[in-house]
Amino acid sequence: MDAADVDADLTNTLFTEEQIQSRLGELAKQIEADYEGEDLLIVGVLRGAVMVMADLARSFNRHVEMDWMAVSSYGSGTKSSGVVRILKDLDTDISGRHVLIVDEIIDTGLTLSWLTSNLNSRNPASVTICTLLRKPEAVRMDVDVKYVGWDIANEFVVGYGLDYHEKYRNLRSIGTLAPHVYA
Ligand code: IMP
Ligand code: MG
User: Fold this and answer.
1) Ligand 1 pocket test: which of 15, 104, 107, 145 has the largest number of ligand atoms within 8 Å of its C-beta?
2) Are 41 and 65 spatial neighbours (Cβ–Cβ below 8 Å)?
3) Whose CA is nearest to atom 10 of ligand 1?
4) CB-defined site of ligand 1, < 6 Å
5) Which atom of ligand 1 is nearest to the CA of 104?
6) How confident is the prediction along the chain (183 residues), in pLDDT tens digits per residue?
7) Contacts of 62 by beta carbon, 8 Å cutoff, 6+ apart
8) 45 and 111 in contact (C-beta within 8 Å)?
């Protein structure tokens, strides 16, 4: 789905498909350099990180293992509920391994700070975070996000995995949701 297909629901396009691919390529290069000679397991946070995982993983010129976790911290609206639950755990034993958590957006930082300490309790060699987008509140939180695609304003955005009531995930670009959609 393209922005034109949901034109009336978006106030603007923040990042086009091309911009996203190019930024992910840059992040992949940086990650490759940082993990040179090391084994690497990338962990996608379902469901929003599916697109980022697919495109980031394919940008690497090296092997990476992929696993998935599903956690819930949001209800179906636009505000964090503050509660984190594991809905699907890793299938991989991460002890002694380098883990890179891949997410599409960090907002309050609650989900990723909880997830980082949860994974750290499993004796991995390291746990770092890569997120495509980061909102201002997360910058204030004590979450060490090593790889960030872009810092964005505190607005509700959709597309490229990001949803509102399970819609817009399949939008190719990322746009700001028009307030009339959730008002
Ligand atoms: P946090 O725990 O507040 O950092 O929330 C992280 C999760 O909230 C993300 O993985 C998204 O699923 C969801 N989220 C936060 N902001 C947005 C947004 O602007 N659009 C869609 N989902 C969002
Ligand atoms: Mg997410």
Assistant:
1) 107
2) yes
3) 105
4) 48, 73-74, 80, 103, 105-111, 138, 156-158, 162
5) 10
6) 999 999 999 999 999 999 999 999 999 999 999 999 999 999 999 999 999 999 999 999 999 999 999 998 755 555 565 678 899 999 999 999 999 999 999 998 988 999 999 999 999 999 999 999 999 887 777 788 999 999 999 999 999 999 999 999 999 999 999 999 988
7) 32, 40
8) yes
Cα angle 124, 127, 132 (rounded to 5 degrees) comes to 150
In the set 107, 144, 151, 163, the catalytic residue is 107
Q: In this predicted structure, what is the pLDDT of residue 48?
A: 96
DSSP string computed for 111-174 = HHHHHHHHHHTT--SEEEEEEEEE-HHHHHSS----EEEEE--SS-EEBTTB-BTTBSTT-SSE
* CA-wise closest residue to 132 among 32, 39, 29, 55: 55
Which residues have C-beta within 8 Å of that of residue 27, sequence separation ≥ 6? Answer: 56, 59, 130, 147, 149
Q: Is 103 a catalytic residue?
A: no
Ligand nearest to the CA of 45: 2
pLDDT at res. 41: 98
